[in-house]
Specification:
- The protein is built from eight helices and twelve strands.
- The chain has about 260 residues and is an alpha/beta fold.
- It has one domain (about 40-80, about 110-255): Ribosomal Protein S5, domain 2 (2-Layer Sandwich).
- Strands 6-1-5-8-11-12 form a six-stranded mixed β-sheet. Strands 2-3 form a two-stranded antiparallel sheet. The chain has a two-stranded antiparallel sheet with strand order 4-7.
- α4 (about 110-135) packs parallel to α5 (about 160-170).
- The protein is globular.
């Protein structure tokens, strides 16, 4: 009986410790950020009465389609995320639980993060301009491009900015729009040489795109599987790895031809 009593005492102590740990976990801040679909913005459109993309030194034309850059909204780097919040978001398709360091790799406060995102955005816009002008065989000495979309922070709109510049100046090279009059959304970083890179959060961005009327979504090829897992009905996912294949896919789509899909 003494042995049984000892085991009971051990189990009781262990149970108390487990309950105490769960109680602490329930109220202690966790190193996660909670994200959801954010806004989208048409880079071919206007912001506060001014065009998002302004071109000097080259002829431009009006466009009827849309190229919508997509975003996610996440809890701030200094926000307290609790266990209950994580559990609630974990089982929702319109929410995501992400390691805080993956959302905010630099900066511990909102002000620091905004400063970093602004710097990334400027770098991304410069790369987008260079990639577009290289593709069009235009010189930055003759053509000046100004991009104004402050609410899209970070580098994730790089591909859409690049496509927007090309569409405004050259379209498909035959007088037609790259969009074919459609509402096309997407995400992806861009390098000056035209390489498209991954960005994260694509599952939420596809939902934002569908909500705002997109029927096509350009996704970095390496993130196809993630995007396809919760693809909104009626949204076509087109994988891309370079600016060249992005333009080629859009041209084919506008011409009614088949294109690669995730």
């Amino acid at each position: 009986m003494a042995g049984v009593s000892s085991r009971v005492r051990v189990l009781t102590v262990c149970s108390v410790l487990v309950v105490a740990l769960l109680a602490v976990a329930a109220f202690a801040p966790l190193p996660f950020s909670l994200a959801q679909p954010g806004s989208t913005a048409d880079v071919l459109g206007s912001r506060r009465g001014e065009q998002v993309i302004t071109v000097e030194g080259a002829d431009t034309r009006k466009t009827t389609g849309q190229l919508r850059a997509t975003t996610i909204v996440a809890t701030g780097p200094d926000a307290d995320v609790r266990l209950g919040d994580v559990i609630d978001s974990w089982f929702r398709t319109d929410r995501a639980v992400m390691p805080r360091d993956s959302v905010y790799p630099v900066g511990n406060t909102t002000a620091e993060v905004e400063k970093h995102n602004f710097a990334d955005m400027r770098k991304s816009q410069d790369a987008a301009t260079e990639a577009a002008l290289r593709y069009l065989h235009r010189s930055s000495k003759d053509v000046k491009v100004t991009l104004d979309l402050a609410r899209i922070g970070g580098p994730s709109a790089g591909l859409l900015f690049t496509l927007g510049i090309i569409d405004k100046i050259d379209g498909d090279g035959r007088g037609g729009e790259l969009t074919g009059g459609r509402t096309i959304a997407g995400t992806g970083t861009i390098e000056p040489d035209g390489t498209v890179g991954p960005v994260g959060g694509v599952q939420l961005k596809t939902q934002a795109a569908k909500r705002d009327g997109a029927t096509v979504f350009l996704v970095p090829k390496g993130e196809c599987k993630e995007a396809e897992a919760v693809r909104p009905e009626g949204l076509q996912l087109i994988p891309v790895t370079t600016l060249k294949d992005s333009v080629s896919s859009l041209r084919a789509l506008a011409a009614g031809q088949s294109v690669p899909t995730c």
